[in-house]
Structure formats: C-alpha cells, structure tokens
Amino acid sequence: MVQGCAVVTGGGRNIGQAVALRLQADGFRVIVLDIVEPEAESLRADARVVDLSDRSAAEAAFAALADLPVRVLVNNVGIVVPALLDEVRVDDFDRVFHLNLRTAIIAAKALVPVMRRDGGGRIVMNTSRVTLGKEARTLYSASKGALQSAARTWALELAKDRITVNCVAPGPIATNVFWQNNPPESEATKRIVEGVPVGRMGTPEDVANAVSFFCDPRADFVTGQTLFVCGGVTVG
User: Fold this and answer.
1) For labelling, which of 23, 77, 78, 140 has a CA lying 20 to 30 Å from the CA of 148?
2) Which residues pair with 34 in a beta bridge?
3) Range of the domain at 110
4) Is residue 55 within 8 Å of 98, Cβ to Cβ?
5) Is residue 186 annotated as part of the catalytic site, yes or no?
6) Cα distance from N-terminal residue to C-terminal residue, the chain
7) How many domains does the chain have?
8) What CATH number is associated with residue 62?
C-alpha cells in the first residue's frame, strides 16, 4: 500500500539511493532530486534531474512537488571539500553551505505546508559523525552541525503540526564518496577502518535502515534527535 510520497535529495547514488530504495520498499512513492539520474531503474520514473546548488532551480523543483501528498522529506544531498584549516578556501564556503544547508531550508519551506495540509509528516537530515570532530572537515562539519541544530529547532516548531524532525549521522560508510575523500592507501584511512568497534565499515543500507525507522508512522514520539550510525566509532 502506498503511504504517500517521500522526497530524497541527492538520491541518485550511494547513501541517498539506498535510502530511496528502502523507502520505496516501505511503501512510499519516492521522488529523487539529484544532479544525476538514479542508478536504480525503479527510481528513474519519478526522478528529477536538477542542480540543487542553484537556488532558482531548487526552488522551482520543490515548488513543483507541492501538489503531491508528500509525507517524508530526506535532506541527504551534500558535498565535502576536505581541507585542513590552513588550506580552507573561503570561496568554498558558499558552495558547501548552499548545497548542504540552504537546500534543506528551501525544501522544508516548500514541503512543510504540504505536510501540514495532510496532517503530518517526517523530515530526516543526513548529517555526519564528523560533527563531533574530524581533521580536514571545517566546512563540511560546520554545515552538518548547522543541519543538526536546525533539526532541533524545527522539531520544536513543527511538533504541533505532527511533523517530526530527526537526524541520521553516519560514521565511516563504504561509498564512492568515502573512498574519494579517504584514500584507501593512506595511513589515516587505515586507522579509520581498523578503528570501527564492530569490526567492519558501514554500508549505505545501514543508514537507510535508520532513516526508515524515523519515517515509520509508529515513530511519531521521536523528534529532535540525532542517531549516530557509526559502528560504535562515536563511543570508542
């Protein structure tokens, strides 16, 4: 039975696609917004190819969804741009924050009225365990930390509308993006992999399972929370 629509930003690859496929399996009609077409064939029919770093394009894309019964918004899209503080380019600030944070605000402003109209909904932010600190992640960790702070604020503001707002914060997840930003041959990467307490890297499906929990109708008493999906890294 279709539960309504779920919108997943950056759902064409990696964690975003795993989230989209899991929500599809959960009974949602899933709409992916990404700069590329989804790899998974089942997601292509409702996919919208859009550059969400372009404010006008993002606003138009989300406005076009306002007539649909959107029950879930997963703010997943993001870029990293790793650099130690001495090497951080201030010019990258807008690039990172516009995609990672501004997109989430644009999406919520367009879709929260839809959720209110239909009696409630779910917003899930894909943040990161780097909000607790990691070298060479000044801009990324700051943008994801801002998302976590926004989630707590929105949780308070939207509770009366039966809209919950939560975060899933992945730890080391084996995706193309992880390996691009953490070269497998580097000693730092080896320490990350060997340091996961449960003894393995995470998978996109591990993150998708957590998102699915927050989106379940039975999770309506959980809001304003951040769930670290990290194999124990954040407590080790």
Assistant:
1) 23
2) 49
3) 5-171+204-229
4) yes
5) no
6) 41
7) 1
8) 3.40.50.720
